[in-house]
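Thread amino acids onto this structure.
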């Protein structure tokens, strides 16, 4: 990165140019948890979908967003990191650590906090102690 504090790293640009797992699961897909954070009026909105498998682990993550390249990159990176995790493990994900890994400029790191909010919103209704046979 150059001297511009708002310049994005190559990692951010790579995720922005070719976002991983963007979109949504087909309607009626079983085991999908939904989360949302932000609003278009405030400049960023994230809709997050987590698909749980029969074993209770996250099988996949999809997202729809309205936002800047930082928001796209964070969602793309998160969608690569979540599969295989238990929901309790997913709750420990740090948006700020993902932002640091991507080399986001400090003024854009608020997108990481919004990502955490969307993830927590998706997992809020999940009972961590309940059997997942109902999925």
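Threaded sequence (135 positions):
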């Amino acid at each position: 990165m150059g001297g511009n504090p708002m310049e994005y790293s190559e990692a951010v640009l790579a995720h922005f140019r070719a976002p991983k797992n963007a979109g949504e699961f087909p309607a009626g897909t079983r085991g999908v948890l939904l989360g949302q954070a932000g609003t278009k009026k405030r400049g960023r909105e994230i809709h997050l979908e987590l698909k749980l498998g029969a074993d209770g682990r996250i099988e996949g993550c999809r997202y729809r967003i309205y936002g800047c390249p930082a928001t796209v990159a964070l969602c793309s990176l998160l969608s690569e990191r979540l599969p295989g995790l238990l929901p309790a493990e997913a709750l420990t994900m740090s948006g700020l650590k993902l932002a640091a890994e991507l080399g986001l400029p400090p003024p854009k790191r608020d997108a990481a906090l919004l990502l955490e909010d969307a993830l927590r919103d998706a997992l809020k209704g999940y009972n961590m102690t309940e059997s997942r046979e109902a999925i």
